[in-house]
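seq as requested:
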Amino acid sequence: MPLATRLSPVSRRTGCRRPFLPWLITLGVCLLLPCAVWSQSFKAKDLGPAPQLQTNTLQDRTAQLNLIFHDYWEETLKHSPEMASTIGDQRYDDQLSDYSAEAYNDSLARGERFIERLGTVDTTGMSDQERLSKRLLVHDLVDRQESAVCEPWQTPVNQFSGIQVDLPMLAGLLSFTSADDYDHYIARLHKVPAAILQISTDMMLGEEAGRSEPQFIMRKVLTQVNALATGRPQDSPFASPLQRFPASMSAQDRAQIRTALLTAIHTQVQPAFGHFAKYLAAQYIPDARKNDGIWATKNGDACYAYLIQSYTTTDLTPEQVHQMGVADVARIEPQLLAVVHQLGYNDLRSFHEALLSNPKEHAQSGAQLIGLYQHYVDQMEPKLPDLVTKLPSAPLKVVPMPSFGSADQVPADYQPGTPDGSRPGEIRVNTTDATSRLLPQVEAIAYHEGVPGHHLQISLAQEQTGIPEFRRFEMYTAFVEGWAFYSEQLGKEVGFYRDPYSEYGMLENQMWRAVRLVVDTGVHYKHWTREEMVQYFHDHTAMDDITIQEEVDRYIAWPGQALGYDMGRLKILELRTEAQKALGKNFNLRAFHDEALDSGALPLDILQQRIEEWIKQQQKSAVHAATQVNSSRTTEGN
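struct tokens:
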């Protein structure tokens, strides 16, 4: 499952998803393709020291590197004010991001300057983590330069992300403890018309350039926008802070704030979204592309190739990914069939039909769904010390997913908490149309979204000390989602999935992610239709139709992102197998997991390098220990 915070089209490298959320750092992309060409040539360069700086002392060079990290983070917060607010930095609470094309170009230019500054720093003699921090920041900055091939600023909204999804959810991530907090929030709402005008202009330029979202996707967006443009202001999701005034606030202050906030919604927010709705209905949607795949847009094939490499942090081609998916589907089907036989069915199709018509395997209510997720979290938490030695201090809650927009969202997602623990991490359960949702996959999803999945990994990353701030919020989809997906099978290893239906659900989740490799490349590379995608899901899974429809639309709107899950899981399994073979009886699963999680999210190639270095260190330690034992025995013998 994706994290609750979806990447904006500008920053879809991970997770992760909206431009202002803490673990995603949004830098704009350039407007011209030559920027991407420049970055490719730059990537090949040695980012070693400039000659005039080679005589600097280690202390000077370390200070220079840390200053770059500091400046980069400050620039990030300044230009992503909503993100700053969500992590507790209140300096920009009255601001909204600049969505203009000029802002994206300025952001790209800032990125170039940071790359150039990093190239002047020689890391010889620095610590392992300092060298890693430089490598990661260079990776991120160059990746964003390369994203120019997609010109994502021209497609800033879809049913999963964009101002019509992100901004209504912002209030739920903020703290309202004083009148100033409300004043700043109201000031933000007054900036909504300008932001929507910028976004509309970006989209208009995108259509003129031959780049747009599919029509049916944008009809979903129109429904979301209309919901924000109409209705009583007090019922708007933007009015939610009025439901949680601090107890210490006077009645007079409450009344003044309520009037000002509702007036801002009525006079600024709703009219702005109303204008946006008219633009979508009258101009954008009629002219939007009819084909589902990104191949139908300008530079679509090149963009998709970039997205695959960015989301998976590999050099795989679309064809290679497609064939990996086909092979993985074939691998998983016999395992599913074995469980089906155990349950008394002859084949997968008959089981699928029985499952879909079995009321006992469907949720009875949203409350039951939430209770099940909580149950699985509660039973897993005591087992965590068997899997890792370090546990996060951040608490975890299971809550309903906000109802606004949930009809287009996944069965459950994860919302990280704040680094200071003032807001806990949350598994947010989609209770919309609850009785249509199947239960067998709930246990696996609970481990994925909660522990030992997203909550464990992301909380540990945010709680790291002694590293630059940007690393605490790093997101690489292949790592973050790969770890969460890998975590699903850890439930089996510690003794869970005792119900064969839940075990089937675990394997079904594996099939689900394998199918993703096929259908994502199918629509964006092989020119499949949406109907072909849906049919492939029905042919190979027993997923309920509501989830299939949501997933298919997600892949169409979010090319490449879903590929990172299986790629990451397979890499972690590959490295675990390599470690087990190399270390034999000296292999320790907890130590392996600790090493994998120790540095936060990493590109897969860097993860592999660090695990292989760890294996060598473990081998040396084992040899040294054996030598010490033999020496002791010899001494005793003498």
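The radius of gyration is 25 Å.
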